[in-house]
Amino acid sequence: MSEENKESEKIAEVPKDNLSPNENQKVAEVPKIDNTNPNENQKTESPKIDNTNPNENQTITIKKSTYANMLKAVVVTIAIAAFLGGYLTGSMDSSGSITSEEIKAALAEVEARQPSPQPAQQTAQPTGPQIFQVSLDDDPMKGDPDAPVTIIEFSDFQCPFCSRFYQQTLPQLEEIYIDTGKVKFVYRDMPLDSLHPNARPTHIAAECADEQGGFWDYHDLLFENQGQWQRLSSSELSSTLVEYASDLRLDTASFESCLSSQEIADEVNKDTLDARKNGATGTPTFFIGNEKDGFEKLVGAQPFSAFQLTIDNLLK
Questions:
Q1: Which of 4, 16, 181, 195 could, after both became Cys, cross-link 144 (CB 3.0–4.6 A)?
Q2: Stated pTM of the model
Q3: Mind listing the domains of the chain with CATH numbers?
Q4: 102-123 pLDDT, tens per residue?
Q5: Would you list the DSSP string of the chain?
């Protein structure tokens, strides 16, 4: 299996309207295999013989409503019998008949003793999207710190879907929401080590660039050159990451020292743990909202329209 196929299986599925013409994905439908040997003798099922003795006792089920009506009839019969008995013993009144009021009273007593029907319990329906409480931590941010809406991206620099978001959707978000002060954008680390062996070193390098105030430029370089570094050997990757720092005029000596920092490695691990804690299983995963009211989750390289719908609802 190729690496591209592995990525497609593990990472959140991307809507078809966001794929470029060269990125069509196929889902193979597995046909059912008929293992029946046509040469094997077919067995004919013999008709079942009903040996039930019609004289045996059988259980009869009666509905509650039918039972109630039968009970009413019994009560009326008893009332009539009681009346006749009273007549024979001389206790009957002079009218010689049961009054309709007496029958109604007897029926009312029977109905009063019947249990009242209980209303069916209704399952509570969800009223909206699930809300998460996600920390911004002290991770890199672009936009107005006081913007009413925050987008937190958990991303992997080697993830092709994260690269697609960077190229196609982020520029529109910046133009319409981030640069206008409506949204601030926070980037958090989530390298998928099992899929992308070169991802973690790039996240550490980007954190080291952030130590010198160069995170977003380094972030852009990594995505724009993803095809160049994603299959490099470990030693070649380290040299390339230092070259990127040099291209951005960062202090390369300080940068190289930072690459082996345990504190930086712990920062990357902390981001990944926070992502998992909030149900992120693939990249990119976004949380949109604010720290006061919580965040809605959006998974995958969604088109701009998906972000627009969520953001505009929050800005109302």
A1: 181
A2: 0.62
A3: 64-113 (no CATH), 131-315 (3.40.30.10)
A4: 666 656 665 565 555 555 555 5
A5: --HHHHHHHHSPPPPGGGS-GGG----PPPPPP----TTSPPPPPPPPP----TTS-------HHHHHHHHHHHHHHHHHHHHHHHHHHT-S-TT-S--HHHHHHHHHHHHHHSPPPPPPPPPPPP-S--EE----TT--EES-TT-SEEEEEEE-TT-HHHHHIIIIIHHHHIIIIITTTSEEEEEEE---TTT-TTHHHHHHHHHHHHHTT-HHHHHHHHHHTHHHHTT--HHHHHHHHHHHHHHTT--HHHHHHHTT-HHHHHHHHHHHHHHHHTT--SSSEEEEEETTTEEEEEESS--HHHHHHHHHHHH-
